[in-house]
Amino acid sequence: MADESDRTRAHVFVSGTVQGVYYRANTRDTAQEKGIDGWVRNLDDGRVEAIFEGSDEAVESMVEWCHTGSPAAEVENVEVEFEDPEGESGFEIRY
């Protein structure tokens, strides 16, 4: 486990055609492959919200991935705010 000082946290909002296209499942699978902790969920306004915690490099690559997302998604915008890590463990889809 990396020292907290080596971890970063990204709070991401993705808009476009990102619900009903396996965006959350693909996000979870990709995050797990990259060793990222956090969660992803659909919002009532049609966006997807996610938290990614991990190494700077892994989180940056995950944020980049969000610009494409799942094969069926049509991402229009990705908003990212970097925050202090809160010690997320594992990665889950929230409902």
Verbal overview:
By secondary structure, the protein is an alpha+beta fold. Helix content is 24%, strand content 40%. The protein has helices spanning 23-34, 56-66, and strands at residues 7-17, 37-42, 48-55, 74-83, 91-93. The chain has a five-stranded mixed beta sheet. Helix 1 (23-34) runs antiparallel to helix 2. The longest helix is centred in the N-terminal third of the chain and has 12 residues, at 23-34. It starts with 6 loop residues before the first strand and ends with a strand.
The count of β-strands is 5
Structural class: alpha+beta
Tell me the distance between the termini.
Answer: 28 Å
Low-confidence stretches: none
Write the H/E string, N to C: EHEEHEE
Helix content: 10-25%
* Average pLDDT taken over every residue: 95
Which radius of gyration do the C-alpha atoms yield? 12 Å
In what range is the share of β-strand residues?
A: 35-45%
Q: Please give the order of strands in the largest beta sheet.
A: 4-1-3-2-5
Query: Main β-sheet: number of strands, strand sense, barrel status?
Result: 5 strands, mixed
- The number of helices is 2
Q: Shape from CA axes?
A: globular
SSE inventory with pairings:
Blueprint: E1 7-17, H1 23-34, E2 37-42, E3 48-55, H2 56-66, E4 74-83, E5 91-93
Parallel strand pairs: 2-5
Antiparallel strand pairs: 1-3, 1-4, 2-3
Helix pairs in contact: 1-2
Keywords:
95 residues, alpha+beta, five-stranded mixed β-sheet, globular
Question: Could you give a short description of this structure?
Answer:
24% of the residues lie in helices and 40% in strands. The chain has 95 residues and is of the alpha+beta class.
